[in-house]
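Let's inspect a concrete specimen:
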Amino acid sequence: MDSESGDILAIFDLGTNTFNLLVRDALGQVLRSEKLPVKLGAGGLRADEIAPDAEERAIAAMHQHKAWAQEVGATRGYAFATSAMRSTHNGADVAARIERETGIPVNIIDGDQEARFIAAGVAQAWPERDEVRLIMDIGGGSTEFILLDGTEVLYAESFALGVTRLVEKFQPSDPMTAEDARRINAHMNEVLAPLWKWLNHVPCRCLIGSSGSFDTLFNVVAGAHERPALDLGAFRATFDLTELPEQLHHLIESSKAVRLLMPGMLEMRADTLQVSALQIQLILDRLNPNTMLLSGYALKEGVWSSLQEPQCPWRASWL
C-alpha cells in the first residue's frame, strides 16, 4: 500500500463541473466531504481549452480544498483530473499550475481508469447487488457507462457526452426547444452506438446513477412530491420509477429560472440538469429498467479503494 498505516488521505476529484474533496482515515471513516462548483469547461470546451477565468476558479478551489483537508489532519493528498483536463490543449498546463501553487500533483486519468474508479466506488454503496446492472455517471465533460454482472465488468466506456460539453456544443435555448432536444438526442444516439450493441445482447433491468446530477434529480423528485431531500451524508437511495417520467419531462422543458425555484435544486446544477434529464430519459427508454438506484459514492471513493492496494502508482504529496 502506498500510504503508511494511520495515514489520513485526502482525495481531490477534479471534475469538469465540480471539484470534490474526500478525506478518510485508515479505517475508511469519512472525516470531511466537500464540493465546490468550478465549471472548468464553461466557455472553453468548444475550442478544446480551459478558459482563463475557469483556470482561476480551479486554483482557488484547490487552495480551499487543501485547507479543508489540513483542518481535519490529512497527511497525504491525491488529486485526479478527468475529462476537461485530459481533453483540452491546455489541461496539462492547468494541472502543472495546480501542482506549483498547491504542492499537490495532479494525476490526469483516461476514461477507462475513470470508469474503473466509478465502478469501485459504486460497489461500496451497493455491495449486495450482483445482478446485471448498468452504472451511469454523468459528468460535465464526459459520461461513463459500466455494465457489471456480479463483480465482473462486462463493458466500460467513457463518452464525450458530459452535460457542460453538450451545452457548449449545441447552445440550446432557454428553455430548450423540441428541435434542441432532437439534435442533442440524435448526437447522443450516434455516440452511444457501442453501448446500444451491448445492451442488445446483455439483458439489464437495473440502472445505478452515480453523480451530482442523479443526487439533484432525486432531491427534485422528492421536492415535487413534498418529501424531504436525501439526509446529509446519505450515500444511496432508490428512485420511484413511476414518478420519474413526469419530472424528467418537466426538467427538459423548463427554463433555468423555473429550475432554480424547484425544491431540491442545487444552483450549480440549474444550468445543465435539463440536459442530464434528456440523457437519463434516453437511457431509460433503451433499458426499460425495473430498478433505478442512486449511488452517492463514485470516483473519489473508488480512488480510496485503489489506494488500499499493495501497489499504488498514483502521484501524491504530503500535506
User: Anything to note?
Assistant: The chain has a mean pLDDT of 95. Residues 135 and 208 are 5 Å apart (CA to CA). The first strand starts at residue 9 and ends at 14. DSSP finds twelve helices and twelve strands in the chain.
